[in-house]
Structures are given as C-alpha cells and as structure tokens.
Write a structure and sequence with these properties.
Distance between the termini of chain B: 57 Å
Strand order of the largest sheet of chain A: 6-7-8-3-9-10
Structural class of chain B: mainly alpha
Radius of gyration of chain A: 18 Å
Oligomer: heterodimer
Shape of chain A: globular
Subcellular location (chain A): Cell membrane
Helix content of chain B: over 70%
Order of helices and strands of chain B: HHHHHHHHH
Number of helices of chain A: 9
Keywords (chain A): Amino-acid transport, ATP-binding, Cell membrane, Membrane, Nucleotide-binding, Transport
Distance between the termini of chain A: 40 Å
Largest sheet of chain B: none
Family (chain A): Belongs to the ABC transporter superfamily.
Structural class of chain A: alpha/beta
Order of helices and strands of chain A: EEEHEEHEHHHEHEHEEHH
Strand content of chain B: under 5%
Membrane topology (chain A): Peripheral membrane protein
Bound molecules: adenosine-5'-triphosphate, magnesium ion
Number of strands of chain A: 10
Protein name (chain A): Amino acid ABC transporter ATP-binding protein
Largest sheet of chain A: 6 strands, mixed
Radius of gyration of chain B: 21 Å
Chain lengths: 245, 223
C-alpha cells in the first residue's frame, strides 16, 4: 500500500555526482521518521526532494497524499501541505516575528490580516514566544528563532513537516527548547521527517529510524531495534562512532 | 580687468537668473522623468536577465552591456539626428529622455541584480517551501531586503543621470546649461555659466554626501 509520502526509485545527480541512488520509501500518515547517517550521505538532499527544493530525475516518483511532486501548478499545492524547518532558520529579517508567521497564510491562503495575526499569536503561545511577537528575528536567540521558524511552518497547517538538522546550528543550551517543541508536535498526528544527529531524540520520539549512507537507505527500523540490534555492519559502525563520545 | 567682475558679475547674474531658473526647471523635469523611467526599465530588465527563458536572458544581457558601453552623447545624437532618416522625429526632450532612460535602465538592471544576488539562497528556499509563488517571493521577501542594499548605488546612478542631462543642450534643449550659454552670449560675460555650475552643485553635492552617509551606515549594519 502506498504511504502518505511515497518515494519510488529516487535518483538525484549533481552533475556527474550520483547523490541519491534509487531510494524507495513509504511513510505513513502521522508517522515520525528520523533520518540519520554520516555527513554527505544524502539526508538533506532526500528531504529537499520531498517538496522539490531539489529537482530529481524524471524516472523518479514522489507523491504526497497522492499528489505527484512535479513542477507546475501542483507544486504549490504540495508545498502548502508540506512545511519545512531549516538548519539555519531562514527567517525573513525585514519582517517582525508575527509578520514572518502571517506572510504565507496571507499570501497563499488569502487569510485576512486580523485572522492571520490572531493565528500567529496562538502559534507563538504554543512555542513559548508570545512575548516576542513584535520583535525582529535578529533580536532573538538561535533557539527562539528556530521556534519561530517552526511556528511559521505550522501557520500553513501542514500535513507534513520536514526538519533538516533543526538543532545543529544552535548553542548546546538551546537544543533542548527546540526538541521539546518538536516532541510536542510529534504527539499531534502530523507526519514528520526529521534529519538529525540527536540520537536521544530519535530513540524517544521516532516511530522509525532510517540510516543512510552513500546516497542509499541502508537500514530502516523502529528505534528500539535500530539502536539495540542494528542488522547492517555500516549501521553498527555509524552508531559506534556517534554514540561513543 | 577685475576677475570678480568677470566671473561673478552680480548684475549679469541677476539679469540672467530667470533664464537659468527656466533651464533648471527643465533639467529637473528631464532628470526626474529619466530616473523614474530608468528604474522601471531596469527592474524589468533585471527580472528578464535573471528569470526569463534562456534566449531572452541572453538578449537582455546584450542590451545591458551595449547600453553601458555606448557613450551617452553618441546615443543621444543617433536618436536625435539619425532616427529622422528612418522617419522617427523626436523632440529634444523626448530624445534626451529616451537616451538617458535606455542607459540608466541598463545600469539600474545591474544594480538590482547585485541586490537580489546578495540575498542568501535560504530566503528563496524558505519562501518556496511556504508555497509562495515567484512573484510573491520577489515582492514580499527578496526585493524589500534588496532595496536597502541598492539605495546607495541607485542614488549614485541618479546623480549621474542628472549630470548627464546637460548633454541635452547639444540637441538644442533649453536646459540649465543651454540657458546659461545663451545668457553668456547675450551678456558677453561668463557669469551665467558660473551661476549654472553653482546651481548644479547646490543640487548634486548634498546627494553625493548623502550617498557616502548611507554607505557608511549600511557598512556599519553589516559589522
Ligand atoms: N548543490 C550541490 N552541488 C554539488 N554537490 C552537492 C550539492 N549539494 C549536495 N551535494 C553533494 O551531495 C552529497 C549529499 O549531500 P547532502 O547535503 O544531502 O548530505 P547530508 O547527508 O545532508 O550531509 P550533512 O550531514 O553534512 O548535512 C554530498 O556529497 C554533497 O557534497
Ligand atoms: Mg545535510
């Protein structure tokens, strides 16, 4: 049965370089999937293909809720359903925190100003930043900025949330506040694909952990099995390296 | 002969002042019209240069490079003196405005492009991931950030346009410089020319200083 996100035979080339080598992946509605693997293994490339921030070869197929992720008018539909949170936040520096959150609902969904503002304030409440609505992003700490970025993605009420190492650019003392917000989100039934180096988070929150290496999915298992009894040697080596320090 | 009497003859200056004012008014009209038209043309060219289909991009690039290379005076003379041979006869004002706009648009396009290309890729990606279309990404996310950066170079370009309006006197447009040379001929005294130079300076020097200040402020913001 095809998943809510269905990835079939996904190939991605950067010029001569074969970055994704035939990925097949089905993700169920409401599932929380953590993607781990060494640097350069293709984790970012994989999730950026899901909303087609990266182009991929024509013989590959990705569907989200049955809609093919192809260039053209469908793409806006898919992107409105798929939120993304980046490692470097990518907040809009010329807009206040509230305006950052309001922009997409206003422009894409044509929500009225008052309604969008009220929604932004509810979302800020939810990520613990109600007091910062009128500030500009540059006045916030990294952890606060990333929580605003999550609120901004949530404003489109997406069915899917993609995270690309959301805590890797943060000072250690701010990682927890962002992971807490993500942990709460995982309870809400939204489908999440999280690229992360936070093994603790993957173990506690994921329904499934995927290990990538060299542009391929090497292993895919529930966290319990993944961390205590990995089948593949490459997975064991990776876990050894990241858990042993 | 007294130098002051020759170059700053107050009586001659007072007599030619109305003529200079009339010239100044035309100079400002020509400058403002060309700057505005150049901004619109430049933004359009920039969008084509960056986002149009490949052949259009190449044509736009050729346009931009040609009009940044051609001497403005040559272009102006072609527009005013050569085009009538193919049946296109433009007034001095329209000829001058056309030439100034075509060149200013080419420079403006490059200024906008540098402003857009200075915006980090993540801003485009964040907008795309939210479902914003290309046009919305430009108007709501990219251009508001670029504008800040391009204000100093755009002001610089505007100063150049106003300075270059003086070339219009070549095609017999009665701008500030033309009025001054005529007043000089009438009075047999160069004071009106000095008067015109002072008027140009009074308008442009503050703008030059403003650009320096804006640039300093932007650079401070970066640090
Ligand atoms: N724009 C690009 N042009 C060329 N090669 C690229 C480009 N983007 C990524 N790559 C290459 O593709 C491979 C996969 O990159 P990707 O960013 O997906 O890795 P990753 O698993 O996310 O790594 P990291 O943990 O460092 O973020 C890498 O070898 C990288 O060098
Ligand atoms: Mg990555």
């Amino acid at each position: 049965m095809p998943g809510y996100i269905s990835i079939r035979n996904l190939h991605k080339h950067y010029g001569e370089f074969h970055a994704l080598r035939g990925i097949d992946l089905e993700i169920a509605r409401g599932e929380v999937v953590c993607v781990v693997g060494p640097s350069g293994s293709g984790k970012s490339t994989l999730i950026r293909c899901i909303n087609r921030l990266e182009d991929f070869s024509a013989d590959s197929a990705i569907r989200v809720d049955g809609v093919p992720v192809l260039p053209g008018s469908n793409l806006a539909r898919v992107r409105a359903e798929v939120g993304m949170v980046f490692q470097s936040f990518n907040l809009f520096p010329h807009l206040t925190v509230r305006e950052n959150i309001m922009l997409a609902p206003r422009r894409v969904r044509r929500t009225g100003r008052a309604e969008a503002a009220a929604q932004a304030d509810r979302l800020l409440e939810r990520v613990g930043l109600a007091a910062h609505a009128g500030k500009y992003p540059s006045a916030l700490s990294g952890g606060q900025q990333q929580r605003v970025a999550i609120a901004r993605a949530l404003a489109m009420e997406p069915q899917v949330l993609l995270f690309d190492e959301p805590t890797s650019a943060l000072d250690p003392e701010m990682v927890g506040e962002v992971l807490d917000v993500m942990r709460d989100l995982a309870q809400t039934g939204v489908t999440m694909v999280v690229v992360t180096h936070e093994m603790g988070f993957a173990r506690q929150v994921a329904d499934r952990v995927i290990f990538m290496d060299g542009g391929e999915v090497i292993e895919s298992a529930p966290p319990e099995a993944f961390f205590s009894a990995p089948r593949e040697a490459r997975t064991r080596n990776f876990l050894h390296a990241v858990l042993d320090h | 002969m007294d130098l002051f009497e020759t170059f700053f003859n107050l009586e001659v200056l007072a007599r030619s002042f109305p003529m200079l004012l009339k010239g100044l008014w035309l100079t400002l009209q020509l400058g403002a019209a060309s700057i505005l038209a150049g901004l619109v043309l430049g933004l359009g060219l920039c969008m084509m240069r960056l986002y149009a289909a490949r052949p259009v991009q190449i044509l736009t690039r050729v346009y931009i490079d040609v009009f940044r290379s051609i001497p403005l005076l040559v272009l102006l003379i072609i527009v005013y003196y050569a085009l009538p041979f193919v049946g296109l006869r433009l007034s001095p004002f329209v000829s001058a405005m056309a030439a100034l706009t075509m060149v200013s648009g080419a420079y403006t396009a490059e200024i906008f492009r540098s402003g857009i290309e200075a915006i980090p890729r993540g801003q485009f990606e964040a907008a795309a991931a939210l479902g914003l279309g290309h046009r919305q990404t430009m108007t709501d996310v990219i251009l508001p950030q670029s504008i800040r950066m391009v204000i100093p170079p755009l002001t610089n370009n505007s100063i150049n346009v106003v300075k270059d309006t003086a070339l219009a006197s070549v095609v017999a447009m009665p701008d500030l410089l033309k009025q001054a040379t005529q007043a000089q001929a009438l009075a047999a005294n160069p004071s009106p020319l000095i008067g015109a130079a002072v008027i140009y300076l009074a308008f442009l020097l503050p703008l030059v200083l403003l650009v320096s200040r804006l640039e300093r402020r932007l650079n401070r913001g970066k640090a």
